[in-house]
Specification:
The protein has 272 residues and is of the alpha+beta class. The chain is built from 6 helices and 13 strands.
Length: 272
């Protein structure tokens, strides 16, 4: 399928490049006809949902702006040490949002990812479909989720339902994660029930995809996930407590993303 962007560049969507599909939209990996750059494309199934697509773009624009503001505030307070918080690595940039005549006026949102290419990302659901992830790799993914929740608390926006792990893309070689489930959104209410729901959903999902064999503290890690459900109303509080626990359990340090199948450790690169 070839569609036309307002910027006059054709997008080629390969039919078998679908990443996700719901009752409301399809999510594709596309590519500009005159460009090698990959684009993520969300296409709604009816024009009735065009307004939600525009709302998605507005939200992501606001999140990008807030991320830059928080980065600037940190530098102003602490000085520029070259390090960055990089909240903007956890969500995509909505490149364009437009109605497309070729598909009867349905709206399309195209997305870019900062400082990386979509070609390096893979759906996390694909990696964990048949096998479970080792605890340290699962801990890394959950840490990114909690960081994202802390940022959403700052933004006063939250995903309208429990987070969807099928909307997670990871780039194992680059140690990057991006969440793409931004279609359904709402303004945060004054209570913190949505943050608590999201955090508890994250803890449950992490337990489900983590293997349990009591190697290197994995049982202790999984027990912590179970014991802390319902504890946190704030993403930041959860993030701080979580990393305090991880640093005590395993110490600080880099762990390559790996998982185990039939007792054999393999690099995730074999599956990308």
């Amino acid at each position: 399928m070839i569609i036309k962007k307002p910027s006059d560049e054709n997008i080629c969507i390969v039919p078998d490049s679908i990443l996700a599909e719901t009752d409301s939209y399809s999510l594709y990996l596309g590519r500009g006809e005159n460009s090698a750059e990959a684009l993520l494309c969300r296409v709604v199934k009816t024009t009735a949902d065009n307004g939600l697509m525009y709302a998605e773009k507005m939200l992501l624009d606001k999140l990008s702006k807030l991320s830059a503001e928080l980065e600037s505030e940190r530098i102003a307070k602490q000085g520029d040490d070259g390090r960055r918080i990089h909240y903007d690595w956890l969500f995509p940039v909505c490149d364009e949002s437009f109605s497309c005549r070729e598909i009867t006026g349905r709206r399309i949102n195209t997305f870019k990812v900062l400082d990386a290419s979509w070609d390096t990302f893979v759906p996390f659901s694909k990696l964990k479909r048949d096998i479970k992830v080792d605890a340290k790799s699962a801990a890394w993914v959950l840490g990114r989720f909690l960081k994202l929740q802390a940022f959403l608390d700052e933004s006063e926006y939250c995903h309208s339902f429990s987070f969807n792990p099928d909307m997670v893309l990871i780039a194992p070689r680059a140690h990057r994660m991006v969440y793409i489930g931004w279609f359904d959104i709402l303004k945060r209410s004054s209570d913190n029930s949505l943050a608590r729901t999201n955090i508890d959903s994250m803890l449950d999902a992490t337990s489900s995809w983590t293997k349990r064999n009591d190697e290197d503290g994995e049982d202790e890690y999984l027990n912590w996930l179970s014991a802390n459900k319902g504890r946190f109303d704030s993403g930041l509080d959860a993030h701080v407590a979580y990393y305090d626990f991880l640093n005590e359990l395993w110490g600080k340090g880099y762990h390559p993303f790996t998982f185990n199948k039939d007792g054999v450790w393999k690099s995730v690169n074999n599956y990308v």
